[in-house]
Design a protein that fits this description.
By secondary structure, the protein is of the alpha/beta class. The chain is built from 14 helices and 16 strands.
């Protein structure tokens, strides 16, 4: 069948790659350079499996700037456009999603829209009323940056926010293109599916915040954080996953999703959700205080990315730490090999690694790398396990 996908970020491009193994996929984007790259089978994002599939698989995938070309004749229009969190309104900016909804409606075509963008709880029902439509449903994604296609090939679960024949067809389409056998599929109401997404990411943020606060305690009390974490992780109810301390949870999803869930809690009793949001700010403040105690004139930031093997640093925790250090009149310089420029948001980028190390009094590394071994005495990191 023909499938249209609006948006070619991690979610959209990984789905486009997955589904184009067996279906005709037209990917829509507003950036001409990304469209050209996809049509030339060059991935515009860093993802090992997408890059591999672009090189080795015969994919029925075309990218376009023309929404009518993309949507005409498509059985499903998958919406995976960004929904940034607006700090002023305390709400996701869903304008890009609504723009696609309006375009589909204006064409008068027989298609089903499937929203994959992260949205507030109750969004789908509100769109049905606002635009007087019924051909829309929600299906949350559970992907990691840098491993998005892998997580589509081996999904932890498939959730579709509707109980219907078209929902089953969409779920089966994802299952048939995956490599994992016996994928768990669950159908539910759209509002429940929206809640699953936000609560899942907020739990992950909670886990990050928990181990970060454990690490803060150990650091200030002179204890071995690694021993404590490994000791409690031997309890199978806790486990050894998602337990590596960092400068705070960041990236595109966790900060905005936790804030959106907190906003959705208006008039609902809670303590924990607000604490998860506040804990991240507290952790960053602690990291800044620890660095300031070293009295540096120049702090070097080693990599802006949140994860190893990633080229994405949207909302990375280190950026707020940089701002706080600058407010304390500390000069901040950056080493980020994915940046082909000498300035980033007003900070000086030093592309020569040796020069960067030489100029830095303290080197901040959210995630450690062996290339820092020769200046280890300058490095401040809380990366205990040398992994994500």
């Amino acid at each position: 069948m023909k499938i249209a996908i609006a948006g070619t970020g991690y979610v959209g491009l990984s789905l486009a790659t997955l589904l184009s193994q067996k279906h005709e996929v037209i990917a829509l984007d507003v950036i001409s350079e990304k469209v050209k790259m996809i049509n030339n089978r060059i991935s515009p994002i860093k993802d090992e499996y997408i890059e591999k599939y672009f090189r080795t698989k015969k994919l029925c995938l075309t990218a376009t700037l023309d929404y009518k070309e993309a949507f005409e004749g498509a059985e499903f229009v998958i919406i995976s456009t960004p929904t940034n969190y607006d700090e002023t309104t305390n709400y996701f900016d869903t304008s890009n999603v609504e723009d696609i909804i309006q375009k589909v409606k204006s064409m008068g075509i027989d298609t089903t829209m499937v929203v994959k963008s992260t949205i507030p709880v109750g969004f789908i029902e509100s769109m049905k009323k606002k635009y007087d439509i019924d051909n829309i449903m929600f299906s949350p994604e559970f992907l990691r940056e840098g491993k998005a296609l892998y997580d589509n090939l081996y999904p932890s679960r498939i959730i579709v926010g509707e109980r219907s024949e078209r929902a089953e067809k969409f779920a089966n389409m994802l299952k048939e293109c995956a490599l994992k056998k016996d994928v768990e599929v669950k159908f539910m109401g759209s509002t429940e599916a929206e809640a699953v997404k936000l609560f899942a990411n907020t739990y992950l943020a909670l886990r990050v915040a928990y181990f970060n606060e454990l690490d803060t305690y150990a650091e200030m009390k002179g204890l071995n954080a690694k021993d404590i974490i490994e000791g409690i992780g031997l309890d199978p109810r806790i486990g050894t996953h998602y337990n590596n301390p960092s400068f705070g949870y960041g990236g595109y999803c966790l900060p905005k999703d936790t804030k959106q869930l907190l906003a959705n809690y208006e008039n609902v009793p809670q303590n924990l959700i607000r604490a998860i949001v506040r804990a991240n700010r507290t952790r960053k403040k602690h990291i800044v205080n620890e660095v300031l105690q070293k009295n540096p004139d120049v702090v070097g930031v080693y990599r802006l990315t949140m994860k190893k093997d990633s080229d994405n640093f949207r909302a990375s925790a280190i950026q707020e730490i940089m701002e706080r250090l600058q407010d304390e009149d500390v000069e901040v310089i950056i080493y980020e090999p994915t940046l082909n420029k000498t300035e980033f948001h007003g900070y000086h980028v030093v592309n020569d690694f040796d020069k960067f190390c030489e100029e830095s009094d303290v080197i901040l590394a959210n995630r450690y790398s062996s290339e820092l071994d020769f200046v280890k005495e300058k490095v401040y990191t809380r990366d205990i396990f040398a992994r994500d």
